[in-house]
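Hypothesis: this fold can be encoded by more than one sequence.
Test: take the structure tokens below, design a sequence, compare later.
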């Protein structure tokens, strides 16, 4: 087996980063919604 080329490495790194970004975004979105729901809305 030959080691993965730079293109494959970049592609998988980009995939990981986008997954992390998506996970982070949904988590912060949930946190924001939670904070907003706790605010005393008059």
């Amino acid at each position: 087996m030959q080691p993965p080329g730079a293109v494959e490495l970049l592609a998988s790194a980009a995939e990981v980063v986008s997954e992390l970004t998506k996970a982070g975004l949904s988590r912060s979105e949930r946190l924001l919604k939670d904070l907003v729901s706790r605010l005393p809305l008059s």
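DSSP finds one helix and no strands in the chain. The mean pLDDT is 89.
Hypothesis status: open.
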